[in-house]
Amino acid sequence: MESLKAIYNPTLKFLYDRAFEKKEAVKASTGTLVVYTGRYTGRSPNDKFIVDTKKVHNKINWGKAHLSISPESYDSLKNKLVGFFKTQDELYVIDAYVGAHKKHRLKVRLYLEHAYQAIFAKHLFRRPNKTELKNFKPELTIYCAPSVIADPATDRTNSEAFIILNIDKKTILIGGTKYAGEIKKSVFSYMNYLLPQKKVFPMHCSANVDKKGKNTALFFGLSGTGKTTLSADTSRRLIGDDEHGWSPEGVFNFEGGCYAKCIKIKKESEPQIWSAIHRKEALAENVVLTKNHDFDFDSDEITENTRAVYPLEFISNSVPNGTGRHPKYVIFLTADATGCLPPVARLTLNQAAYHFLSGYTSKLAGTERGITEPKPTFSAYFGGPFMPLKPMIYLNLLRSYLKKHNTKVFLVNTGWVGGAYGTGHRISIRDTRAIVDAILKGELNTVECHHDTVFNLHVPKRVKNVENNILDPSFSWMNKKFYLESAKKLAQLFVENMKKFPDVQKEIKNSGPKP
Prior knowledge:
Blueprint: E1 6-8, H1 12-21, E2 25-27, E3 33-35, E4 48-51, E5 67-69, H2 71-86, E6 91-98, E7 106-112, H3 115-124, H4 130-134, E8 140-145, H5 152-155, E9 162-166, E10 171-175, H6 181-194, E11 201-210, E12 216-220, H7 227-231, E13 236-240, E14 243-247, E15 250-253, E16 257-261, H8 271-277, E17 283-285, E18 288-289, E19 295-296, E20 307-311, E21 323-324, E22 329-334, E23 344-347, H9 349-358, E24 360-363, E25 375-378, H10 391-405, E26 408-413, E27 416-417, E28 425-426, H11 429-440, E29 449-452, E30 457-460, H12 468-471, H13 473-476, H14 480-498, H15 506-509
Parallel strand pairs: 1-6, 3-17, 4-5, 4-9, 7-8, 8-10, 12-22, 22-26
Antiparallel strand pairs: 2-3, 6-7, 9-10, 11-12, 11-13, 11-14, 14-15, 15-21, 16-20, 17-20, 18-19, 23-26, 24-25, 27-28, 29-30
Helix pairs in contact: 1-3, 9-10
């Protein structure tokens, strides 16, 4: 694409200097750049579209999570973006890989308005070497310019912001929003369309492995449930923090970096992430700074959804090649704000399928525009907005891989205990880590359980280093009657949600809650 000055694959030093010179960002006392994204401090789901064409129409799971837009609207907005770039003194072009496994990776080229976006892309995606860059031919092209806005009346969008995936033309358009997470999630959505057609299971999960490289674990969960925190474990090696594929060869990371939540982060509980954020090469997003330009991680003055992006190698015990063996354990994470779900439960294959399809959590403040306090939500596969194909495709891939590799599955609640949000308290990271540690050591495979009749779950009676009274929520609530009423109400939400999936087998539906 012609422009006055297209800068291809510049160095990080060049981009850091440019971002500071052009006042795109300020510097923290550590030297870390901090960018503020204005009105959009989280994803904007109502502004995300897929171009509706004959090729894809019958494949896409259309609905609120996957809105359609016409090819004509796409063409109009692409012309706006390309026209804008041609007028700019500078634009930044980044070539990158998505997918650590060479057989399944995707070549991506990004045209970016801002230097900070180029830093984000270089940190987050996997970086080709100099030889690979010489003959780089993109298989997906992204145009991202926050200064370009849509006209809802003529472009048929819902606001001035737009995130549009055109599968036919292998292109993504992003405009009107400075929130860098839209770049990441739009690429993720495209991978989730492509991979199942190769019998590869795409997953919204983090992954780590023991130091011997034999015991791989996957952590599924929506934003705010603890994927990044729990996978960054000093006793294990990090494969990746958010997006992976499970292929016949094993597990592989999509990314080359991490995009971590920063709100209320503490050095004592999350030392690896804390250290990574404080390196001057990192990039922070919407984190409040004090008068001395120190990070104020406790402040939600701008948003709860404060973030930092950094390369995977900033985590000292990460796995450089981003791959691992077939997982021995899968953990479904939920942050239940009702305080009713137990902190841990052991799942059968059918229960695993049920909870994978449910994807329950409480949507936490700041992860999307307009969310100011926790709200119960169901997002199939723990990432429904990023999974564009029909539900049974992802469900069948999960069941197939779990069964073939005899993988154990657990449900872990990182949300509230002793009462709902506002009454109880969020379970401590210390307790959750102890639960996860017990799972990965195999201690909960055969431990004695009690049957939670409301949620139809097998709940361990004992977990090493965890108080027994929090394992059963009915014990930790002061008002037992109110607990039972709240639990039945939540269980009914599960039942109502499952009605969205009429094709699901009876044995899976019967594995869920029984209000």
